[in-house]
Design a protein that fits this description.
Number of helices: 8
Structural class: alpha+beta
Helix content: 25-40%
């Protein structure tokens, strides 16, 4: 490491696509990655390409604050994950609007920030790495004609499942995944049809648009809820199942500008991963939940998704 210093002023003076290629940012990324995981130079060369490819393809994300672009990139080193696209992408970038004040007329003042979001598959990696779990099986789709039973006796969860072939109805009624904890005990994450139908209603309400011609609100849920002849997309449901399976698990270490799909973001860590003077470092408040449609993890990484399944919020995504 040389004596190149990072300052907020220097970061703000850079162009969005130049930030991850800056010498000081590069050295900071490699230093953190080497300290936590090893192989920092190789990771930097790969992730800087993925990161800038995402920004280059989305001009809206380039309008995020320069400091949030910087922290999102550094958080890749903190988490040790990759932005590599694929059917089981570990994380992706989300543009979020943060309320930073209120005008005299009561209208909110917002600024755009880039947030690193860890998918359910990435969360599996984090939890296995932290020692919380040994293994998690792939989510299983349960169809109407299958035999399925779930029980919970004094905290001991059990699933009995028999797959009936062929699946003639094409009607999925449940999805579950088996998790082996660190102590060898077994846990299950389960979603029933009523669960994702409830989420579909939230999605419709939070993606409603005003039809000027008819003078009515039109509600349009995420298309993935009805992707397969009116049924939920299986890859989308698998990602949902993973996400909800860990809602009650202990937190794992993530960066200041990172969020998990399954939980609200952790409080900022004590470690100063970013190497920017605390006296000049902008505050990074945690975002309110965003309730735009979920990313389609079945076909690969989606660059403009959001996470969340409940009531509306003033903050949104871009």
């Amino acid at each position: 490491m040389n004596n190149i210093q990072l300052t907020v002023a220097a970061i703000n003076a850079m162009q969005p696509l130049d930030i991850v290629r800056d010498d000081a940012v590069r050295e900071r990324f490699i230093q953190i990655y080497d300290t936590l995981w090893g192989g920092g130079e190789a990771a930097y060369e790969k992730e800087s390409i993925y990161f800038n490819a995402i920004l280059r393809d989305d001009e809206k994300k380039q309008k995020a604050t320069k400091f949030s672009i910087f922290t999102a990139f550094i958080d890749l080193a903190v988490c040790g994950l990759s932005l590599e696209p694929g059917s089981r992408a570990l994380c992706y970038l989300v543009g979020r609007n943060y309320k930073i004040g209120t005008e005299s007329n009561g209208k909110g003042i917002y600024e755009g920030r880039l947030v690193l979001t860890v998918s359910g598959y990435g969360e599996l990696v984090l939890r296995a790495r932290s020692g919380q779990i040994q293994h998690a099986d792939n989510p299983v789709m349960v169809y109407e004609e299958d035999d399925f039973c779930f029980s919970d006796n004094n905290g001991r969860k059990q699933v009995s499942y028999t797959c009936k072939i062929p699946h003639t109805s094409n009607h999925i009624v449940a999805c579950y995944m088996r998790i082996t904890r660190a102590d060898g005990s077994v846990d299950y994450g389960i979603m029933l049809e009523e669960d994702w139908l409830r989420l579909q209603e939230y999605s419709a309400k939070n993606n409603r648009r005003w039809n000027k011609e008819n003078g009515v609100w039109e509600e349009n849920p995420n298309e993935l809820y009805k992707q397969r002849e009116g049924m939920i997309d299986t890859g989308f449901l698998a990602a949902k199942c993973i996400k909800h399976a860990f809602k009650t698990y202990p937190k794992v270490r993530i960066g200041r500008g990172t969020e998990l799909e399954s939980q609200q973001p952790d409080e900022p860590q004590d470690e100063d991963f970013y190497g920017v003077s605390k006296a000049e470092k902008p505050a990074m408040p945690q975002p309110q939940p965003s309730f735009a449609p979920q990313p389609d993890m079945s076909a690969g990484v989606t660059i403009d998704p959001a996470a969340g399944d409940s009531a509306t919020s003033d903050d949104g995504t871009f």
